[in-house]
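Suppose a colleague, Dr. K., hands you the sequence of a protein chain of 234 amino acids and asks what its three-dimensional shape might be. Before reaching for any lab equipment, you can write down a predicted structure in token form. Begin with the sequence itself:
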Amino acid sequence: MTALVLQARIDSSRLPGKSLLPLGGKPLIFRVMEAFGFLSGEPFPWEAKILACPEDSVSSFAPLAEEAGFRLIPGPKDDVLARYCLAIRKSGAERIVRATGDNPFVFIDAAVSINSEAQVFGADYAGYAGLPYGAGVESVASEALLRAEKEAKTSEEREHVCPYLYGHPELFRLHRPLAPAKWQGPELRITVDTAEDYERTQALYGHLFSLPPGERNLGENVIAAVRHIFGNDA
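The predicted structure, expressed as tokens, is then:
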């Protein structure tokens, strides 16, 4: 079983409370969860959708997770690797698709594609290179993450979940291909980390909202919208 595990928290040093900032009439975190519920033309590879958050975010996130069809699994605040492993144990997932709550324009079609490639190649870790910043996800074998939980020591490895895996290619099967040309745009930024990012996000979401729900998070549509509104070096 594959689970989509989305990590999010309330506090943020650069943009406090960003997960709850409004985007098209709903909190930002809801829009991210919503993105993983629509895809035109092909099925999702995940049988479960989980919002993995710290304990101090539960009261704010619980009603939003329920509305979006996500199971809420709280865990350690700063040890996000342990939070993911808790989600693995509670869900029984054999593989997870890892996503983050500050990326409302995640490429859903690219997420499906990289997860498929990970399974074909038997990869412990898979992620595309060359995507816009804020567009991608990672596909990870649960067994590999559980091993990382036991062996990873640094705060970087614990907070960012996957560095232990791709930092030890001798231990894990890695698949890190360049993304297909239609999804490439490493110079583009579509995450939400600052007030400026949030302002740009509102403009971009307003443009994409005119599309059917299943098309708003297709990579080519997002890239076209970014370049239309902000230019080629946005």
